[in-house]
Amino acid sequence: MDKEEQRPQTSPHVLIFPLPAQGHVNSMLKLAELLALAGLKLTFLNSDFVHEQLLRHTDVVSRFVKYAGFEFRTIPDGLPDEHPRAGHGFMEIFETLESITKPIFNEMLVNMKPRVDCLLADGVLGIAVDVAQELGIPIIQFRTISACSTWAYFAVLDMIQAGELPIKGKEDMDRLITSVPGMETFLRCRDLPGFCRVMDSTLQRISEDTRKNFKGHGLLLNTFEDLEGDILSHMRTKSPNIYTVGPLHLHLRTRLCESDQTLFEQSPNSFYKVDRSCLSWLDKQPKGSVLYVSFGSLTVLSSEQVFEFWFGLINSGKRFLWVLRPGIMPEKGDEGNNIPVELIKGTKERGCLVSWAPQEEVLGHGAIGGFLTHSGWNSTLESVVEGVPMICWPYFADQQINSRFVSQVWGLGLDMKDLCDRHIVEKMVNDLMVERRDEFLKSTTKMAKLARECVNVGGSSYCNLDRLVEDIRSMNSSLGDF
C-alpha cells in the first residue's frame, strides 16, 4: 500500500474570508452553506463589526450550528465603530485592511488548528493573496461581482496603455471604449466605474488585485454560463480554471430542497433589521402592479436626489415599495424634513416605505412588476432569477458595467445612469411597467428559466460546484506557492 492509500481521508479545512460589506458577506455566506452541505470543514472569517451586525439582525449562528466542523471567527477591519462604512467613504477600509488587518490575519493563519488547507478569499482582498503566497496556502479567489465587471477591471491596464483611461475631464461620456475584448461595440466611458475618471491609487489597486485573481488555483464567480458565457470565454484565455456556480441564492435553495431543508423561514444575511410588514402590503396589491425600489446597502443619496426619485414615482401613478435604508441620506438624517404634501399623500395612496426589506421574498412576490435598482450584483441576480425587469441607477464600482449589460446586452431592463430627474424617472417607470412591459417580460422570463436550469442536477453551475468541492478535497498545503 502506497503513502497516498495510507493517508486518512479527513475533510480539508477551508477558511472563507469576505470583504466586510453587506453584498460580499451575503453571497459568501451562501457559498459557505453550499460547501457545508457538501461536508467540508469551514471557518468563516468576518470583521468584528460585521459579525456584530449579523448577530443583532439574523439567525446566522443557529443556521450554521447544524453543520459539523463549521466555525465563525472574527478579525478587526481597522475602522472605528462609528465609521459609517457606506458611500464613497467605504473605500477607506482598504487602507486599514492593509495596515491593521493583514498582520493579524497572517498570525491567525500561522497558529490556526487544524491548519488551513485552502483559503477561499474575496477577490478584492489583496491582503489574502499576499498572506497565502507567504505561507504557501492554496487560494481560490471569489469575485462577488459579475464576470463582465471582473473582466473590465482586468482590462484597466490595457485601457490605460491604449490611451482610453483615465477619462479626461468632461469629455464625451458616450465615447466607446474599444480595448476590452468582447465589449468593443457597446462599452462607453459612462459605463466604467467612477474611479476610472482619475489616475489614482484606487484605479491602480483595483487593476492589480483583479490581475491577481487569475493567478491562484482557480477563480470562483457568482454567475452562470447562459448569462455571461461570451465574456467568460475571454476570461478563460487568462485563467482556464473558472468555476461559475451562480446564482448562489437559487443554487442554495435548490441544494437545501435536495437535502430536505428549508430556506424561506431563515432570516436574510442582513446588516439591518428586516421589516416584513411590506409582504402583507404586497399581498393586497394586484399582480405585477408594484415597482420595488432599493439602492442597496452602500448607496448614499442627497435629499435632492431622494425627492427627485420620489416625485418621479408619485407622478408615474404606479404603486411602489421603497426601501429607505438608515443612513441613505446622511446630510439631513433619516427623518426627511419638509416633505412636500403631495409626496405624503401619494405615498399613502399607493406606496409603502420600509427601512429594509426581505429582498429575495419581495422580488419573488407576484405583485412585483419591476425593480428600480442600484445594479449591485446580488440584486441583479435576484431580479434575474425571479424574472423581474429592471430600471438601473448605478451608484459606483461594478454597478455601472452591470447596468449596461442589463439594458444593452441582455435586454432585461433600462439604464438610467447619470440621470436623477423626476421626469426621467416617471417616463422610465411607465416604459418598464406599461409601454415595453411585454418586451421585457419575454426576455426576463427566458433568462429566469435558464437560471433555474443551470442549478439543477446536470446544469452547468450544479456541476461546477461539485467540481469545486472535489478540487478542494484534493488540496493540501504542499501544493506549492500560488
From TrEMBL:
The keyword Metal-binding does not apply. Signal peptide: none annotated. Its EC number is 2.4.1.-. Gene3D superfamilies: Glycogen Phosphorylase B. It is an enzyme of class 2 (transferase). InterPro entries: UDP_glucos_trans, UDP_glycos_trans_CS. Keywords: Glycosyltransferase, Transferase. Pfam families: UDPGT. Belongs to the UDP-glycosyltransferase family. This is Glycosyltransferase. It comes from Hibiscus sabdariffa (roselle). The lineage of its organism: Eukaryota, Viridiplantae, Streptophyta, Embryophyta, Tracheophyta.
